[in-house]
């Protein structure tokens, strides 16, 4: 589906913490706790942080493909944990963009997105795709940067830095040495790797390699 990168779901039996890494995507998240039902719109994050996860919780999230945006809500208004809590109605629906929607389950999450697209609540930017794929001959560099920042809330350079740091983190927690991760993720030297990973992932490369903590993108999830 052109609007969705992934639909994921997760469950916690015990409380704990994990590293929530920097990322560029918008997500619609349904949270179910013993005394709470919430629907949250989350935006991009530019710094890694340690996040506490409550016990006995269930989450379902629609992770929108990069370049999907909300015409009525600037992505920059959601960035760095400026989450939007959407009103949940007594009939099991929620309000978003002046309309009432069924709270989705895993099997009908993409159907919800399709309805949102038809209603004009979400849209796609082909300029963002062109920037990522390097197909920018038909646009000036300045135009590409302007479109990318308007849609994603961050510069294209910031997006590239986040993707590189996430790749380095994946290498480190999978057993690669700091030296190999530096080379594998394309960093100039270990000092460059350390600065980027500490800021964007939330932990130094040496500690990632030693402790191999739970990362925000490495839960055992079911994807679409």
Query: How many strand units?
Result: 11
Give the low-pLDDT segments: 218-224
Order of helices and strands: EEEEEEEEEEHEHHHHHH
Integer-rounded radius of gyration: 18 Å
Beta-strand residue fraction: 25-35%
How many H/I helical runs?
A: 7
The helix content, as a percent range, equals: 25-40%
Q: Report the mean per-residue pLDDT as an integer.
A: 88
Shape: globular
- Spatial order of strands in the largest sheet: 1-6-3-4-8
Q: Please give the alpha-carbon distance between the first and last residues.
A: 9 Å
The biggest beta sheet is recorded as: 5 strands, antiparallel
Structural class: alpha+beta
Write a concise synopsis of the structure shown.
The chain is of the alpha+beta class and 224 residues long.
Short descriptors:
single chain; 224 residues; alpha+beta; five-stranded antiparallel beta sheet; 7 helices
Strand and helix map with partners:
Blueprint: E1 4-12, E2 16-20, E3 27-33, E4 36-42, E5 49-53, E6 57-64, E7 68-69, E8 84-86, E9 93-96, E10 99-102, H1 109-118, E11 123-124, H2 126-133, H3 141-152, H4 156-173, H5 178-184, H6 190-200, H7 205-211
What does this structure look like?
The chain contains seven helices and eleven strands. By secondary structure, the chain is α+β, with helices and mostly antiparallel strands. The strands form four sheets. It has a five-stranded antiparallel β-sheet, covered by helices on one side. A two-stranded antiparallel sheet has the order 2-5. Strands 7-11 form a two-stranded antiparallel sheet. A hairpin with a 2-residue loop joins β3 (27-33) and β4. α4 crosses α6 and α4 runs parallel beside α7. 28% of the residues are buried.
